Amino acid sequence: MISPKYDWKLLEERPDEAFLAWAKKEKLDNLAAELLWSRGVRDEKSAQKVLHPMLDDLHDPFLLHDMDKAVARIRRAIEAGEKILIYGDYDADGMTAASIVKSALDEIYDEEQVQVYLPNRFTDGYGPNLKVYQYFIEKEDVTLLITVDNGVAGRKEIAWAASHGCDVVITDHHSLPELLPEAACAIVHPRHPEGAYPFDDLCGAGVAFKLACALLEYVPREMLDLVAIGTVADMVSLRLDGENRILVAEGLKVLRQTERVGLSNLMRLAGIEDEALSNLTEEDIGFRIAPRLNALGRLDDPNPAIELLCGWDEEETAKIADLIEGKNTERRALTDQVFAEAETMLTGDAVEVLWHENWHKGVLGIVAGRLLDTYHKPFVLLSVEKNGDLRGSARSTAAFNLFNCLDAHRELFIAFGGHAQAGGMTLTQENAPKLKQVMLDFIADKALDMTELPEMELLPPIKFDSITLPLVKSLASLAPYGMANPKPHFLVQDYTVTQARSMGQDNRHLRLKLAQDKTQIEAVYFGHGAEADEFEQATTELAVTLSTNSWNGETTVQLMVEDARSVGIALLDARSRDIAAPQQAARFLKNDLENAIMSEVLTIEEAPTTAEGLSNLTEYVKAAVKNDSLQEIIFKNAISPAYYLTGAGSREQYATLYKTIRSYKEFDVRNKLQTLADFVKLPVPLLIKMIQIFEELGFVTISDGIMTAVADAPHHEISESHIYQELEATVKSQKFWALAPVKDIYQTLIKEKP
Hints:
The structure is a single chain. The protein is α/β, with parallel strands linked by helices and 754 residues long. Strands 13-17-18-16-15-14 form a 6-stranded mixed β-sheet. A 5-stranded parallel β-sheet has the order 3-2-4-5-6, with helices on both faces. It has a 5-stranded mixed β-sheet with strand order 7-8-9-11-10. The longest helix has 30 residues, at 314-343. The chain is elongated and about 130 Å long. The protein starts with 6 loop residues before the first strand and ends with a helix.
C-alpha cells in the first residue's frame, strides 16, 4: 500500500500582481515568485536580498554574548605566549569549526602554540572530557581552552579546568542546560539567555566563523567553504532571511574553487570534479561531503580530518582522503546491518528503545534517523559497552521534543546532550526501561498526537509541459535550500505510469516513466524499489522536487519523488506476480473471510466458487467502501481446478471420449482414470466432469468404480446436461476472475446486485 509519510498542505495563497510584475522584470518564473511569496518574501527589497545574498549583510560578531570577553582573553594569551587547545567534536560541524578557529589563530599566532583535539566518540564520548582536559592542562601546559561545537554541557569539566589554572572560552550552539558553566571566562552562544544576537540558529562552524571574524577584524572569505560544510552538515536553519543562507551561498562559491588540497581529494573520491565541481550545490555537501567526514568520526579517530581540511601536504592529505573514503564504505555496510537487525526487535510501542551488544555505536544515529523516517516515532538505539553500560543515539519526531523530555531526567544518564529532535547518551542497562517509560509518560502528560504526520508544503499541481530547464534554473535562484527553506515540493497528479522498475544496489530504488498528455518525464524514488508493481497498477499522486539529469552530454529534467500516496482504493493485480500483504490484512479464501475487522488491506487469495462465497465477498467490500476503511485490494484469485484453461470440452473431445468408452466392455475409473486421461489427452478434472455428464445423460453407468457404456443409450445433446451447464457457468466465472482487469472485478464487487 502506497501511504504518505507526510501530511500534504497545498499552498493556495498567490502573489499580488505587483509582485508578479517585479518577478517578470527579474526574469523569475511565476512558480519561483509563488515560492518567495509563500515563504514570507513579499516586497522587492526583501526579495533582492534573497536573490543576491551578500557578506555585507552578515551581523556584527560582537553582538554575540561574551564575544568581547572571548576575543580579549585569546589576545591576552597570544601576547603572553600561552599554549592554546581547540577542543572540537567528532562530526563534520565540529571538524570544520575546529579547523576555522585553527586557521584564524594560525594567521595571528605561532601555530606551534596551538593544538587541536577532536574527541574520539569511543574513548572520550561526546562533549567535554575531564581526562582529556587533565592531560592537556597537566602534560601540555595548556592555559587557554577554546571549545567549538560543544561546551555548554560541560559544567563540571570546565570548573575543574578553571580551578587548575586554565581558562575556558566556550563557543557552542547546542541546547542550553538549566545551569551553565559559570567557571567559563566566556560563553559565546547565539541563544544565550543574556544575549541578543539577531540570528539564533548558527551551527558550531558558524559560531567559530564569527569568532574568527572578531579576532581577525575582517570577514575571512577563504574560510567560508568550511562554514558551508558545517552548516549544511548540521542541518540548521537556511531560512531566506537568515544569516546561514548567506554563509552557505558564499561558501559554495569558495568551495567550487577551494585551494584545500585535502578537501579537493575528498571531493574527487566522492565524484565531485570537473563539471560536477563547477555546479556543486548544497546537496553535494549534504549527500557526498558531510557523510564522508562524519564516517571518520563515527568509526575511527576523527583527528586526521584537521590535517585534511587545514594541511597543505598533497601526499599526506591524499592518504587521509583515501582513509575517509574507506570508512564511508564501511559505514554504509554497518548501517544496513544494524537497520535490518533493529527492524526485527520492534515492539510496536509509541517509543522504541533498542540495544544490542554487537551494534557499532558509530552508526546508531544514522540508523535511528532511518527508522524514524520509516516508522514516524522516536527511536533510541544503544550499543552495549565493555563495562555493560549503554551508549547511543536518539532521533525524534517534530511532535516529541527529545531534549525537553530527557533534560528533566538527567539522573538516568551517565552523559546526555542534544537538540529537540536528536541526542546522544550513555546510561546503565537497568535505566533503559526507565528511559522508555519516561518518554512514554512525556507523550501521555503532554497529550502528544504521535500519529500526526509532519507537514509538507506543496505548491499547486504542476503540469508536465511546464517542467522545463529554465524553470529549474529559476528555482535555483532561491537556493541554497535546507532546513526552514526546503527545496520546493510540487504536487503531481493525473498522469500514467508507463513503466516502473527497481534499480541500484539490491534494487533498493525506484525509477518511474510517467506520461501526461503528450509529455513524458522520468522520476526517481529512493528507497522504494520494492513498490514497483504497486506503482504500475495503483492510481497515485506524487510530491516531487525538480532536478536535472545529465547523460551523454544531454541534460534533461527529472522528478525526485519525496512522497507518494494512493488515490482511492489501490487495486493490485497479484495473479501473475508476488505482492506481499501486511500480516493483519483481511483474507478471502474458501468462500469466507479471515481477519475481517475492516482492515485497510484485503487480499483475495482465492476466487469465490459459490454464490454464498461471492455474496460474502461483495458485502464485505461494499461495507468497507462505505465506511472508507479499505485502502487496498490485492487480487491473487487462485483458482483450482482451472476449468477456464480447458473450457467445458469441445464436441470432438466428447465424441472421442464416448467412442473410447464404448470400445471397452467396462472400465475401472477408480484406478485407471489417469491412464484414460492420457489416452484421450484430457486433463483429469475435465475428464471427471465429462464422465459425470455422460452418467447424467444416461450414456454410461458407474457402479463400485466400474464404468460401463449403455448399449442403447437415449439421444441427448451434451448441452442438455445440468452439470454441463454449471461447468460452462464455472468456466465463464473463472475466466472473469483470472483474466478480467482488476478494475472490472472491483466494479462487479461494489454493484448493488452482483
